[in-house]
Amino acid sequence: MARASAQGRTTELGASPPATARRRRPRLGRWLGVVPFFVYASIFLLIPTAEIIIQAFRTYAGAFTLDNIKSLWDPQTLNAFETTIKISLITAIAGGLFGLFVAQAAMHDQAPAWLRPILTTFSGVASNFAGIPLAFAFIATLGTTGVVTQLLEHVGLNPYSHGFTIYGWVGLSLTYIYFQFPLMILIITPSIEGIRKEWREAAVSLGATPRHFWWHVGLPLLLPSLLGAMVLLFGNAFSAYATPYALSSGYINLVPLMIGEVLNGDLAFQPQLGYALAFGMIVVMAAAIVIYALLQRRTAKWLR
Amino acid sequence: MARVEIRGVHKQFGDVTALESLDLRIESGEIVSLLGPSGCGKTTALRIVAGFEQADSGDVVVDGERVNDVPANRRNMGMVFQAYSLFPNMTARQNVEFGLRVQKVPKPDRSAKSAEVLELVQLTDRADQYPHQLSGGQQQRVALARALALEPRVLLLDEPLSALDAKVRVQLREQIRRIQSRLGITTIYVTHDQEEALSISDRVAVMSVGTLQQVGPPAEIYRNPQTPFVAEFVGTMNRMEARVLSEDAIAIGSDGLRLAVQTRGHRPGDTVSTLIRPESIRLEATTDGQIPPGELVGRIQAHTFLGAVTRVTLDTAVGPLLADVSSDSALALSLGTPVRLHVDPLGVRLLSQ
Amino acid sequence: MAAVGRPKRHRLTFWSWFWLALAAIYLLVPLYSTLQFSLQEGQHHYGFSAYVFILKDPAFWQSFLLSLRLALETVAISLVLMAPTVYWVNVRIPSLRPTMEFISVLPFVVPPIALAVGMIGLFSGFPLLISNTQILAFAYVIQALPFTYRALDAGMRSLDIRTLTDAAHSVGASWSQTIVHAILPNLRTAMFASAFLTIAIVLGEYTISSLLLFNTFAVYMEHIGTTQAEPAAALAVLSFFLTWLAMLGLFYLTRQVSYRRAVAMTR
What we know:
The complex is a heterotrimer of chains A (about 300), B (about 350) and C (about 270). Helix content of chain A is about 65%, strand content about 0%. With about 300 residues, chain A is an all-alpha fold. Residues about 1-20 of chain A have low confidence and may be disordered. In chain B, helix 2 packs parallel to helix 4 (about 135-150). Chain C is mainly alpha-helical and about 270 residues long. Chains in contact: A-B, A-C, B-C.
């Protein structure tokens, strides 16, 4: 996409004011257009975030302390982190692989042309369907009187008699996967598209079977993208609040739920704990996004 | 090396006929170009031979064996694509060794073979670089080495030089020609560049709209085009209508300008297309007043400097004509100069209408 | 894979159809179950009484209209805030782009539940601010930020905004005139796309509104869910239907692009 820029317009200072007037605008003037946004972002995003980080290291009285952070290793909090990480990891990997296989299937050469748009639409809807309605949908499906539960009961395989419950971590994971794998489909599809037809045909002309191709060329090329997407999926699951609230609140211990409890005053009065938990969450999410960015750079090198 | 026969191959894409019952034979060890404009079916034909497309009817026969049902990955044909076909996650050497790895060739033999073909394309010193570190020309050379590593019985090239700079194109096509004749590998070369086709082929197959127009050695195609399409597509051609007068004369244009030329194969009274290459016309400056009747004369309308040769556009009684003269002699021929045209009768071709 | 030969074809296709069928089942079964639940009226009776119940509940309308209003406000504020900003960064201060990209990623790093901690901590001293539903719209703008920014930025980049700007300037337009008359009309698709996505997000938002004790649509839904199963299922069906509508609108808009890409894939 070659853009013909007008002469002298590509300097660091950006496009010049109306060509007729060559007067020197005050340097501050050009920042005017972005001030509203930065003020807004500061009030509603940057300062609250800073508040979290600062307060995480402060006692209620305002003195500097590491106690809040240390309390993250208390049994209850540690358990929350472990459970949340476990569920996030499992749904990221399972949802990720599932999404990959489905995306691959839809992008097959012999797949009918209407398949991809339908899949994209469904994936878009499903990945947005998280939250309260999704929790209800899965209760209606696999709850104690759920449609599928009753179906399985007919066949003599009622999961509840084997210790399963939709409110446990397995049930929650199954619910998460509902929006995880479509999200994976949406993310990975452009990368799969980036696998050029020429590479596949070249491999064929050199005697390779599809499996050879995917093992030696396709998968290595796709791997950074795949891992990056899974990292996003991880973050997505880690920070979910509404879905587990409606489904597993009181049943299992998750970091987002704990934060909610602190904010609602349900937990023993530890005001700074909320900040510490939020800080811990930010650290996890920040690590995720950094890993994602590094993997993206790898992808860009090969697939563009 | 293998002999390839395309017999009556027909291919339709929806309601577009890509190939109309194509018949072509490529002998063992020869290099045949499929030459034609976009959409003429040359790439389709190549892909059918490779196995990436299936012919609707007709056969592809290699060494007497029908290969229509043989999957593409078992036809043992090396293919070089137009661009972007190197695996980006592998070095040049690893790319070249890919086919050998698939065949489970043991490492020492693999290394030896890949070193050998990389030497052939003169890229030994770049063997450990990745495709994004190589220039377009180097990438295509690696692609060629990769195809040759498996010692295929047929080599297929789909416009391998189209994406490259002009100078690189010329260098690389010479290198391809050299390698091909050294290995004696049967080769089918698809291109839309007639200079390329003429310079590297044993035979050229000119195609248009799914049909084969003419097949023959480059010189033959160039000097004896059998159809108006071939005449126009290959090289530049002056074309005029004429009437056959006798067995050694024709009358050109409405003025009936007489030209002495052999008319074998045509009867007096026939209307023919007269084809004259620009290089078959010699120009002689003339001063006004000395215009012998019946001679072809003209006035210089334009010059196009092409390097060694200058293409002169002439305004004549039979219409505009192009003549190629050496650039040195062109200096004397300024715009507006009246000239006499001497046509070399051996350079004239007649085609029935 | 390119035609690797007829014998192999159906083996590949088996797995393809397997995964696609599995995906279809996974996506559709919960929806069907919810639908069935919502139509239940006691033992083996089916009817629309759950839906009637909801539609007759004033709390439903209150919460739904609140969420709808907030959604539209969020869209309006987002566009008014972001469009000029993204334009400005693209044309005048390209060096600010990394900062903008960083900020657009922050809502992922500081998810709603975490941000709520910061917001409540900060604003609890301002009861007026926190007791007005408006604050939700302001928070939602931030939540939708990544999508809005990306849509507008991608839209502007594909438009070659610089040339458009220079062209407008060469006929004497001022900055605001340029934005309103030359740039925005061409960004319609991007703007509508981000609008639809924002609406879908806001309609389903629960975290911040529940913690700030507002009665939005999702909060109402959760409340109903704790007491009555069938109306809750009906609400879930409704919610899904609305999301579906929003996404359809989105895809209808970008249909030209998807169709072209779909055609390109089949070649």
